[in-house]
Design a protein that fits this description.
Elements: E1 2-10, E2 20-27, E3 35-39, H1 50-55, H2 60-66, H3 70-84, E4 89-93, H4 96-110, E5 120-122, H5 123-131, H6 152-168
Parallel strand pairs: 1-4, 4-5
Antiparallel strand pairs: 1-2, 2-3
Amino acid sequence: MTWFSVDIEANGPAPGLYSMTSLGAVAVRGQLEDQFYVEFKPLPNAGVNQEALAVAGLSMEHLVEHGLEAAIAMQQLADWVKATAENSAVLVSDNPGFDAAFITYYFALVGIPNPFGFSSRRIGDLYAGFKKDSRKATEWKKLRTGAHTHNALDDALGNAGALLRIAEMGLRIPRT
């Protein structure tokens, strides 16, 4: 089993109504050298929340010009996950209610099986369980490596670094 730290950015709060703008993923093992990043063209007829778009420092013009069509981007992600994973792949993120929702929607939209399946892990819950105190669900964020920039790959890397630090503290995670 391989855990993948995944982060997405979107131009609004709900898949289908808004578009995913970028996705970063990192295999949680070794020196975090197995990385993936992609930017997306906006979905046709999807809305745009300019404040949400600005959080990641992207513009619609940039995404229209440089982003990939959803089918191409999701196939690249699926191929990378399959090539990188040891047996099964598990999506781990800061907020899987958001990240996994967009990812699941996009895989279904383009008709590609989701290599992560339909479950995920929340880093805050893992940390709170490890500490045996549900009130500590946000303390793990102090363990991030690098700044939380809202660049999807930067954030996935920082979260993966936090997972490795938590593992050094004694949490058993799958690491190949």
